[in-house]
Amino acid sequence: MDALQRYLQSSIGKKQIVAVTGLMLIGFILGHLAGNLLMFRGSEALNGYAHKLATMRPALLLVELALCVVFIVHLSFTLWLLLSNTDARPVPYESYEPTERSLSTRLMPYTGSLLAIFVLWHLFDFTFSDQTGALSVVVGKDSMGLYGVVFNAFQSSFHSGLYILAMCAIGFHLTHGFQSFLQTLGFNHPKYTPGIKVISTLLGVAVAALFSSIPIYVKFFASPI
Ligand code: HEM
């Protein structure tokens, strides 16, 4: 018990917890992205996928609960780490010149906060919304279900614009987050660092671009049914 307490209070312990929960969230994001790209294949594909997930409900609920816990642990340990770093040095450096801190690193607190707000908004947008009612596309008596809800949401340029802004935030957050995850796990060697930076940047750009392609495609090219 004492050892656990000491581990949780150490800076490296907190960093490792942030890193491992961050990796789990990246896993969810990549899976979620793969599911969402079914928007490109039309209503049957996306609704079929949503239906399949719905049939897995009782088991899926456990996964969702675990995801929620992981998200909360990731956020609270990040905050704890930030606060204990500030406590460790309450007086700021007289002349502090950050050495080569990249844009994605400096933006971490902002992209992280933006993402937390985005996820809450996003859940009310799609998960908790009425997926068969007036928010969806209804043709006669047939509802286009979740596909219709996403289709209608992205007809608004403002709505789509906010999503694209959040997807840029996720791109920046992943760029630094993945790099930081590898460093925390010990891949911190001048030989590997340039390669790690390139892979993390590619991951961030690919995730932001692929997610952003969905509102753009829906707004300009997709069919409502
Ligand atoms: C263009 C981008 C995105 C689209 C179109 C999208 C679409 C959706 C849809 C349709 C659902 C509801 C699924 C259902 O009820 O079966 C959903 C749920 C969810 N999305 Fe997204 N999403 C996007 C980006 C993101 C991002 C970047 C994150 C995380 C940072 C995220 C996190 C979630 C979570 C946590 C849920 C709830 C999962 C669940 O109910 O099991 N989404 N999303």
Describe this structure in words.
The structure is a single chain. The chain has 225 residues and is mostly helical. It has nine helices and two strands; from the N terminus they run ααααααββααα. It has a two-stranded antiparallel ribbon. The model has no long low-confidence stretch (mean pLDDT 91). Protoporphyrin IX containing FE is lined by residues 29, 32, 36, 50, 53, 64, 115, 119, 122-123, 126-127, 146, 150, 163, 170, 211, 214-215.
Which geometry do the CA atoms define?
A: globular
Instruction: Name the bound molecules.
Output: protoporphyrin IX containing FE
Q: Mind telling me the CATH superfamily name? A: Fumarate reductase/succinate dehydrogenase, transmembrane subunit
- End-to-end distance: 57 Å
Strand count, sense and barrel status of the largest sheet are:
2 strands, antiparallel
Would you state the CATH class? Mainly Alpha
Q: Give the SSE string.
A: HHHHHHEEHHH
What's the CATH topology label? 3 helical TM bundles of succinate and fumarate reductases
Estimated share of beta-strand residues? under 5%
For the biggest β-sheet, the strand order reads: 1-2
How many runs of DSSP E, i.e. beta strands? 2
CATH architecture: Up-down Bundle
Features:
225 residues; mainly alpha; 3 helical TM bundles of succinate and fumarate reductases
Entry summary:
By secondary structure, the chain is mainly α. The chain is 75% helix and 2% strand.
Write the layout of secondary structure elements.
Layout (H helix, E strand, L loop, with lengths): L1 H8 L1 H26 L6 H13 L1 H32 L14 H4 L1 H20 L10 E2 L2 E2 L1 H9 L3 H28 L8 H28 L5
Antiparallel strand pairs: 1-2
Helix pairs in contact: 1-2, 2-4, 2-8, 3-7, 6-8, 8-9
